[in-house]
């Protein structure tokens, strides 16, 4: 699980162009949206595509993303339980 | 019709032009076939959260447009008009590459949003909160001039009072590779100060962003008056001279009234003849300048020429590095810019000190 969390942090930094953020600066429980990393709705779409492309998870209802993308912890848990590749 | 004034300039180019209080004080020479802009510290102009999703062309244009607005002493304009040959081609390339690589699946929104030509004009408008006329002209080497014409018509007809006009193009890998394959870029690196002596085929490719505030009202920051702009999509070498004379006559001017002509020589042995014939005949006795050894060649390189012309008129100084002949002007009032690219898309732009 810790490897997956590190992988997620690296992917988020790279795919969302968070140039000034390092892996160490993202805590597993930090909120990704709002006060934490400050991601927005376009980033949410990027993350939905990332789940599909890299982990074979297609969200049937995009509203599910709100809970899944709360933090690195919630993302890692969801991916571990649902990944198909 | 009301006169149209150029009230401010903003530039990001292969020279250090992003600081408006300087004028080619320090020249960066290159020995290459492709030259990139000298990047300003974008963080001074763009919040990091906004910058992370911006293509290079948008970043460059945010800086040059902000500098132009600051110099004009205004925070917003009535219209934004941008000329670009290829828009945010970098994101367009990546978007198309992703389509191919991922078998038309998994397309992400950011690259799609920016994979259009009018992204720059749109992003500037969003940043300013400008809800006025927002237009992008995409027309190869006359893209910038097309924007100038649109702005001039709107201003002269009292449709608007202030317009932000610009030209932008960015360099990206695939675009450069394509131009190398078709032989439009020089095969061997060349020191740019020797560009016109190379006598080889192709150009040195560049990029840049140049923005200007145009207005019907003169201000303390005013550089010049935009007198006339004309474009010709096709024009044979034999007809260029006649078109220039006719263009000037329409402004009740003759060749003798031109204090400086700025030519678009890019060192391509196949097409610099358009300029050389003018240098040795029509403009034989006219002070001449060139600039693509400083900026590189790109669809909106005339934005650099327009910046240069305005700087020259304001400072009343022609930097040695741009002089094409040794004739010194007795007066520095009227400047003509002539450009073409590979024998097509010719443009004439006339400005006058005011």
From TrEMBL, chain A:
Residues forming coiled coils: none
PROSITE patterns xref list: CARRIER (PS50075)
Highest taxon of source: Bacteria
Domain Carrier: 2-83
Gene3D superfamilies: ACP-like
InterPro entries: ACP-like_sf (IPR036736), PP-bd_ACP (IPR009081)
Protein name in the entry: Acyl carrier protein
UniProtKB/TrEMBL annotation, chain B:
The entry's keywords: Transferase
The protein, known as: Beta-ketoacyl synthase chain length factor
Location of the Beta-ketoacyl synthase-like N-terminal domain: 46-217
Source domain of life: Bacteria
């Amino acid at each position: 699980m810790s490897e997956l969390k590190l992988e997620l942090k690296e992917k988020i930094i790279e795919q969302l162009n968070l140039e000034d953020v390092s892996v160490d600066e993202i805590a597993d429980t930090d909120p990704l949206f709002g006060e934490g990393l400050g991601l927005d709705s376009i980033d949410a779409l990027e993350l939905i595509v990332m789940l599909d492309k890299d982990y074979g998870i297609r969200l049937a209802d995009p509203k599910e993303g709100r809970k899944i993308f709360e933090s690195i912890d919630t993302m890692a848990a969801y991916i571990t339980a649902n990944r198909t590749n | 019709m009301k006169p149209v004034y150029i009230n401010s300039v903003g530039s990001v180019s292969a020279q250090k032009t992003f600081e408006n209080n300087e004028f080619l004080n320090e020249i960066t020479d290159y020995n290459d076939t492709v030259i990139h802009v000298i990047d300003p510290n974008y963080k001074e102009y763009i919040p990091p959260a906004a910058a992370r999703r911006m293509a290079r062309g948008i970043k460059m244009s945010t800086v040059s447009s902000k500098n132009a607005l600051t110099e004009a002493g205004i925070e917003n304009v009535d219209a934004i008009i941008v000329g670009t040959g290829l828009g945010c081609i970098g994101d367009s390339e990546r978007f198309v590459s992703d389509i191919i690589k991922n078998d038309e699946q998994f397309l992400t929104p950011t690259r799609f949003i920016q994979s259009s030509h009018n992204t720059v004009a749109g992003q500037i408008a969003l940043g300013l909160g400008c809800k006025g006329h927002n237009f992008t002209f995409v027309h190869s080497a006359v893209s910038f001039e097309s924007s100038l014409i649109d702005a001039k018509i709107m201003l002269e007809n009292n449709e608007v009072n202030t317009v932000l006009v610009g030209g932008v193009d960015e360099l990206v890998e695939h675009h450069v590779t394509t131009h190398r394959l078709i032989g439009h870029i020089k095969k061997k690196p060349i020191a740019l100060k020797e560009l016109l002596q190379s006598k080889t085929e192709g150009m040195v490719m560049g990029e840049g962003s140049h923005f200007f505030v145009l207005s019907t009202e003169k201000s303390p920051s005013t550089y010049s008056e935009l007198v006339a702009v004309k474009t010709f999509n096709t024009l044979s070498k034999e007809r260029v001279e006649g078109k220039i004379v006719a263009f000037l006559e329409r402004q009740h001017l003759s060749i003798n009234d031109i204090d400086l002509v700025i030519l678009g020589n890019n060192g391509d042995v196949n097409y610099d003849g358009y300029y050389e014939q003018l240098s040795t005949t029509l403009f034989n006795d006219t002070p001449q300048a060139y600039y693509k050894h400083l900026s590189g060649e790109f669809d909106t390189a005339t934005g650099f020429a327009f910046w240069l012309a305005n700087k020259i008129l304001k400072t009343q100084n022609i930097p040695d590095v741009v002089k094409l002949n040794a004739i010194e002007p007795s007066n520095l009032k009227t400047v003509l810019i002539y450009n073409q690219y590979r024998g097509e898309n010719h443009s004439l732009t006339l400005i006058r000190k005011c």
